[in-house]
Amino acid sequence: MDGFHDLGGFQGFGKVPHIINSQDYKQVFKQEWEHLAYSLMFIGADQLKKFSVDEIRHAVERLDVRQHVGTQYYERYVIATATLLVETGVITQDELDQALGSPFKLANPSHDKGRPAITGRPPFEVGDRVVVRDEYVAGHIRMPAYVRGKEGIVRHRTSEKWPFPDAIGHGDLSAAHQPTYHVEFRVKDLWGDAADDGFVVVDLFESYLDKAVDAKRVAA
Length: 220
Prior knowledge:
By secondary structure, this protein is an alpha+beta fold. It has helices spanning about 35-45, 55-60, 65-70, 75-85, 95-100, 165-170, 185-190, 210-220; strands at about 130, 150-155, 160-165, 175-180, 180-185, 200-205, 210.
């Protein structure tokens, strides 16, 4: 899904401020209230089993741009969780508004039903050259836009499999389970010769990939 949430690789935003701290990961939350937002999300997804984590991610994608810009990370997940609790009938919009004492703006309704995974193909192997499918999807997708149509090398395949996000993110409980692949890309292949030398590794579901030779044959 192309939206404001997917800014990875966009030009013109300047350097991203970050802290490299590989020695201590004790501070998980920056503010005291954030753990409550995280807990609320998993009460709905795990304890109540009303929705999946990918449905929550898609609800975040459904936020208005202004709403997205004006909120912090865990605030977006509060809105997304509240949206799904209303959509699944756990609470009504009126009850939510009354409890908070003011209208609570939920995420926009979903206008897409998602799509199934590509199945019936042999898995990719470590060392395979693959091409990310050049697809524009209206609904939920876990493929960053900046790797669309790019060629890379498989460096690892997970032994575990998970429901395909594009399907389970829209509530499809029959979603096919697939492994993910750590695919290595040259930085300059992604962002051109003005970029620094180096490599980027992206974790991608099987259905987002084609073998490079197969993709070239189709194009021809």
